[in-house]
Amino acid sequence: MSNSKIPKATAKRLPVYYRYLRFLADSGTQRVSSTELADAVKVDSATIRRDFSYFGALGKRGYGYDVRELVDFFKRILRQDRLTSVALVGLDSMGQALLHYNFRQSNNMRISAAFDDDSKLTGTIVAGVPVYPTSEMETQLRDQQIKIAILTVPDEQAQDVADALVKAGVLGIMNFTTTRLNLPKTVRVQNVDLASELQTLVYFLDNYGDKED
Amino acid sequence: MSNSKIPKATAKRLPVYYRYLRFLADSGTQRVSSTELADAVKVDSATIRRDFSYFGALGKRGYGYDVRELVDFFKRILRQDRLTSVALVGLDSMGQALLHYNFRQSNNMRISAAFDDDSKLTGTIVAGVPVYPTSEMETQLRDQQIKIAILTVPDEQAQDVADALVKAGVLGIMNFTTTRLNLPKTVRVQNVDLASELQTLVYFLDNYGDKED
What we know:
Two copies of one chain form a homodimer.
Chain A: H1 8-26, E1 31-32, H2 34-41, H3 45-53, E2 65-66, H4 67-77, E3 84-89, H5 93-101, E4 109-115, E5 125-126, E6 129-132, H6 137-143, E7 148-151, H7 158-167, E8 172-175, E9 188-191, H8 194-207
Parallel strand pairs in A: 3-4, 3-7, 4-6, 7-8, 8-9
Antiparallel strand pairs in A: 1-2, 5-6
């Protein structure tokens, strides 16, 4: 079955499953039950079994899932065998932290170019990543065939920079600004709003006695 | 009606609504339709109307919602009138970026204490926030009555530090580590997994032609 038939809620959980399965494989665990998985990744076991069934990965009753098989399987699904290059635009402290972070937990994504107009940074290499002036953004993105960008510019520049990214062929943007971007429907935006996440946590603590979802 | 009857999916959207409404109020806008709101915050208008109806905030047909009334209303709901103090544990580059970020978009939360064992940092003030050695964590959290903490320690320390936080009375943790924390049910954990979010974006671009959810 084609991956495009997988519900998007399921798709969002795949990286979480994969990370934990890789941890199990690294620590020599050979099999895992959906209940153990559920406990570790905080997703209920019925949901896990349903998610896995979309891929035809069926555990055996009384045995569970073979860890190595699942890891190999998710590696293919998530294209872990292929490196995806990502651009980062805007080197404020969050941008710089993301450069150092460089998604090191994952082995298939890498920030390979950063853009900023701070003349102290352009032309240098920060945390292994070359920093270009934004005037070179379009050329570099096209030359390096980068389709995904992380946006950490000041809010008031966000829309203009996003427009330029799209013009240069970017199809996915991880947006750390609080600007809600207006972009063509062909571009996927993932908003990361840390203040709202923290505020939600405050709200839940004020209003709910438990942590169920 | 009590806030605790509000669906949690609705609760998660409240900070997003509030931020945009405040922006409208600041720019002098007096009224807004659910369609305009929908377009700005990328939530469909039927969902917005249903969300608002939980609070008895009903727009008038052909008029929409009164922006000032909604802002005042959300301010009460989200307790924007009261400052919530938050602790940050672990001053790697991400921790330091969060200190500088200090949730400045929001006016009701503030990181008021940071903890780390780097002797170059302890006893100093970074981005306006005092940095204490972790040996003082329990005392400081109790003295300052801090109930919410941001966890940016190395993964292998995450569980131990989280246990110590809970022992000191913390009820909510924003977890930037990739460790899935095992904590009492009374503690709410919000996992922020930037690598998985980016991986999900890559996956969607590979498998879906559009950006619908």
